[in-house]
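Why do we care about 3D structure at all? Because function follows from shape, and shape follows, mostly, from sequence. That is the central idea of this module. The next example makes it concrete: a single protein chain, its amino acid sequence, and then its structure expressed as tokens.
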Amino acid sequence: MPGAMQRRDECLSRLYRFTSVLGWFRHGFVDVVDIMHGSRATVFGVGTRLAHSSVGQSGSKSFDCNYMPIIEDENVRIALAFWREGERLSGVHDSYAFLSYFKVIESQYQDGRGRADWFTRNLDHLPEERAVARIAELRAAGEDVGRHLYDSGRNAVAHASFGGDIVDPDIPFDRRRIAADLVLMRELARRYIAHELNVPTARSVYASRNRLEPWEPLIDPQALATLKAGGTPDSALLELEGLRVGLRLWPDDPLPGLGAMTMRVDAVHEGAARVLLFNDRMTMMFALVLDFRNGQVHTQLDNSCLLQNDEHRPVEQDVRAFYTVFHRVIGNAVVELLLEGREPIDCEVVIPVNILPRNPTEAVEEAVEAFIRQQQ
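And the structure:
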């Protein structure tokens, strides 16, 4: 059925595009190794030799592609496709991996002069030590590095003309040469995608993204400018007092009692605001620092606690929710703040110091059992 085959290919093409972007974004390799289609249930599996990825994510709730870029430019899509192909072949077949990385750059130029000029301008800007060492080695041997990569690399791999340069699989020297050049070619391809095509990675997004941007329109513009400059505006100008904010551990829904907490501004100082979140019964309090100067949010577990007042005391649900957040955050869980009509704001991961994180489930159950004993 041509129509069904076309639809299948369209879906598969989208999946290939997704894995190209995901692998680049997560600093690894993801690829489609097999597919299954049909109207009947079928036992499906692939050989472990093929089913692998260098993107280290596992578990039912660990997959994270938040803030991954949307690729609309066809040239960028093609470059990422060749990058994925190179990553797939790296460690499997050096020659073809080299060719794929070369095509990342070659696919962006109509003639060789533009590519050669780009090589010349960028060879001295590669940070990877092995690539730097290979450049020095080639130059010491009197080689034009860009010409070497084209003649002894790209052409030698792609062609096998009589009397011409080739990468002979039976010659150990050829295999060592292409393996040494592969490191250099990979770093050039990486630099092109990152600096010429401006495709971000998870690390570059982490370093540059302003987490507080979704809330900035709520704040008086002059006060916001003062905060970003590291100043201390009047706390009333922040207009954050009384906001109803949800707190959750990504990617789960908020725990009972944490879905609509009331925000209080506790202090403002040198570009940062310390805020407190209270549940409706005022039996849980979470402290956070909104760092507008650096666009980050930090949880303050040491200043967060269970509370009691004249009307309410903590109940088991409060204890379970509070200590779930506490122990999972110590275990590197990500806290997100939810405000209706705004994008979620993620807090910085806590790096425990002089603390040995416990199994969160066991620690929470122990806290709940201790609370129940106290009530008896």
